[in-house]
Amino acid sequence: MIWEVFRQKKAGDYHTHCGNVHAPDREMALLFAEIQHGRRMPTNSLWVVPQREIGEVDTEDVAFGGTTDKSYRWAMTYQFEAAAEEVAESEDEQAEAERQRRAVVDGDD
User: Where is the composition biased (Basic and acidic residues) (predicted)?
Assistant: First the structure.
């Protein structure tokens, strides 16, 4: 029987799939997973699951997100160039104002 193994590196992290083990029962699968996948890298915990118990839903089974345009959620659709120019202009204006304030204070007016 094949058992899939998921490893958590440190407490609070997500478990990620790290491989599988072949074992006749749960106790042996846990032991094999610990030996093969738990000792090689820092490990907080392991999940060992029978492969036949893992279900999958893919794009052929269901339309994830539907057909609604949600491109506004990703920053790649925004125009940053104009905003960057405004920031640069504002910084230049602030620097010029600071130079003028210093000139007035120093009496160079």
Answer: 96-109
